[in-house]
Design goal:
alpha/beta
Length: 219
């Protein structure tokens, strides 16, 4: 169900799973600067991917799709982070290292949100804002189905994950509460939390995030 686009070559292979409504350019941001092969996933109803089938927006179903991509490492942003958490709960040894950026949900239901909220939080050059708003028009079903869901029913299901897990959270982002980032990092035996004092760290701290990811995946 997902489209994959590889960048680079060789090992390690890093799976990159984007957030809800991400444009193709946004989806590639976390992969920038990483060595080896970066496999950027495009979920249904994003970019050039076909529209999602009815009932698709479920963390378990998305996790199953991500699980079809062979990789040594993984990065997930927001929705992609939640799906990776679900995947790790059933395959704890799947990846050697994992980074979870702006997790929105762990074991407590995600609060309702609207596509208008996502659009209102979009900032940047006018061309990017227009592209982002256009991308969101395909995601009405996701906005209806994701609230009330959890990434895992019980955070203790992550206790068997021995891989280092870097969690990058935001301060002041209403859609990605810092408490969720803290709880996510605490759920992993080798979890590490980095809270960035910004409501939009992927914009304001892009260079710092890139450097931190390169360092983290280098071990």
């Amino acid at each position: 169900m997902v489209i994959t686009q590889p960048y680079g070559s060789g090992s390690p292979v890093t799976l990159v799973a984007h957030g809800l409504g991400a444009t193709p350019g946004e989806a590639r941001i976390p992969a920038s600067g990483l060595p080896g092969t970066r496999v950027v996933v495009t979920l249904p109803s994003h970019g050039d991917a076909p529209d999602a089938p009815e009932g698709y927006w479920d963390y378990g179903r998305i996790a199953a799709d991500l699980g079809t991509v062979p990789a040594d490492h993984a990065i997930g942003v927001s929705l992609g982070a939640g799906a990776l958490v679900r995947l790790l709960s059933v395959e704890p040894d799947r990846f050697a290292r994992v980074a979870l950026l702006l997790p929105a949900v762990l074991d407590q239901p995600r609060q309702p949100f609207t596509l208008q909220q996502l659009a209102d939080l979009t900032t940047g050059p006018p061309a990017y804002v227009a592209e982002r708003r256009a991308a969101l028009t395909r995601l009405e079903a996701a906005a209806a189905q994701l609230p009330g869901q959890v990434a895992v029913a019980d955070a203790s299901s992550l206790a068997s994950v021995t891989a280092p897990v870097l969690v990058i959270g935001a301060v002041g982002d209403p859609l990605h509460p810092e408490d969720v980032a803290k709880a996510t990092a605490a759920a992993f035996p080798e979890g590490e939390l980095w809270l960035i004092d910004s409501a939009a760290p992927m914009i304001t701290h892009r260079t710092e995030i890139r450097h931190r990811l390169v360092s983290f995946f280098a071990g």
